[in-house]
Design brief:
Order of helices and strands: EHEHHHHHHHHHHHHEEEEHH
Largest sheet: 4 strands, mixed
Number of domains: 1
CATH topology: Cytochrome p450
CATH superfamily: Cytochrome P450
Radius of gyration: 22 Å
CATH class: Mainly Alpha
Length: 394
């Protein structure tokens, strides 16, 4: 049994006004099989509260949302630009390199170090995660989620689980290296902070929770940010006048030779509006995390039975004509008032809404990796598109 919530007002009514009735996270078979209830994204109850609280406090301790992490972002953007420049204007696929750059920011938080873009260990990690991200949205895995008993027919779900097994073996080697060099007086990142909890005998801090909390952080910070930047590059190619306006605004705020800082964002309303509009227009996460009804629910004249899966259709909010003047067009003025000041729109819910949003949405992780988008789009010279024409969507 599935109910899809469409339109911003409906999503808001369900997930805010009826938060208790739609409060449980749905049990999704493939994720249950993958995580065994470990980590943050798909755990429940006291374990979820403990892991989430520890994660958010640890991210802040290691500089998320502060100047510390911003320096790492600046360093990574500089490495990214040098890599782009190495092609001397020749065409290349940006997906893997952008994933690598954003993942390196996450790695610096998790492990206290970054990897070279051609590091075979790093490339293996990204390959496995990228393949799983693609497979988890495939028709065969979706079929498995509705009919788990048919799992023996789904080669895709078997590949996902095999990749998780390989990721586990890969990460355990990294964790072991950190255990051997562990110094409680010099914690290098999230993994070390987790290991300290283990050493103190706190039972919830198991190896399984370490592994899947690590993967959850990768998923939360990497895919959405790199996809935002890729869409940004595409849209800047189509609308060079918009990129020129971003550059003009930054030239007024940023000193020559400097890079934009988080604190500068308030002084650059147009740039902020463009980044928000990229996420709205690109529809990066079409559906929010599935919820479940713990009891029978009376909602807008309908009785929704206990145990019904609830899917918020975020794309319907991001294209809701009641809230967006030109929902089918890329239009940064959606986030600007008549005086050119930035305004945040109520219906802007690219990842989810308030109480039910991703554990990391609004967290220091999202804020800091999101800043990667501003640095990247403002630092890369005007791109040139020489490929075949696509469709004519505005």
């Amino acid at each position: 049994k599935v109910v899809v919530l469409a339109g911003y007002e409906t999503i808001k009514d369900a997930l805010l006004s009826h938060a208790e009735e739609f409060g449980e996270r749905a049990e999704i078979p493939i994720f249950r099989k993958m995580t065994q209830g470990n980590g943050i994204a798909f755990s429940h109850g006291e374990l979820w509260k403990t892991m989430r609280r520890f994660t958010l406090s640890t991210l802040r301790d290691f500089g998320m949302g502060k100047r510390t992490i911003e320096i790492r972002i600046l360093e990574e953007v500089n490495s990214l630009i040098k890599y782009f420049d190495s092609y001397h204007g020749k065409p290349f696929d940006t997906k893997m390199i952008l994933n690598s750059a954003v993942s390196n920011v996450i790695c610096s938080i998790l492990f206290g170090e970054r990897f070279e873009y051609d590091d075979p260990v790093f490339l293996t990690l990204l390959k496995l995660m990228n393949e799983n991200a693609k497979l988890l949205g495939s028709p065969m895995v979706l079929l498995y989620n509705f009919y788990p008993s048919l799992g023996f027919l789904s080669g895709a779900s078997k590949t996902v689980l095999q990749n998780v097994s390989e990721l586990n073996a890969f990460l355990q080697k990294l964790f072991q290296a950190h255990k051997e060099e562990f110094n409680e007086n010099h914690l290098t990142g999230f993994v070390d902070a987790f290991l300290m909890k283990q050493q103190k005998g706190q039972t919830m801090f198991s190896n399984g929770n370490l592994m899947f909390s690590t993967l959850d952080l990768f998923a939360a910070g990497t895919e959405t940010t790199s996809t935002t930047v890729r869409w940004g590059l595409l849209l800047m190619m189509k609308y060079p006048e918009i990129q020129r306006k971003i550059q003009e605004e930054m030239n007024q705020v940023i000193e020559p030779g400097e890079m934009p800082k988080l604190e500068d964002r308030k002084k650059m309303p147009y740039t902020d509006a463009v980044i928000h509009e990229i996420q709205r227009f690109a529809n990066i996460v079409p559906m929010g995390v599935s919820r479940s009804t713990p009891t029978d629910v009376n909602f807008q004249g309908y009785v929704i039975p206990k145990g019904t899966e609830i899917i918020p259709l975020l794309t319907s909010a991001l294209n809701d004509e009641l809230h967006w003047k030109t929902p089918d067009q890329f239009n940064p003025s959606h986030f600007l008032d008549a005086n050119g000041n930035f305004i945040r729109r109520e219906a802007f819910i690219p990842f989810s809404i308030a109480h039910q949003r991703c554990s990391f949405q609004g967290s220091p992780l999202r804020a800091s990796t999101g800043n990667f988008s501003a640095h990247s789009l403002s630092s890369i010279a005007e791109p040139i598109f020489n490929g075949p024409a696509g469709d004519n969507r505005h």
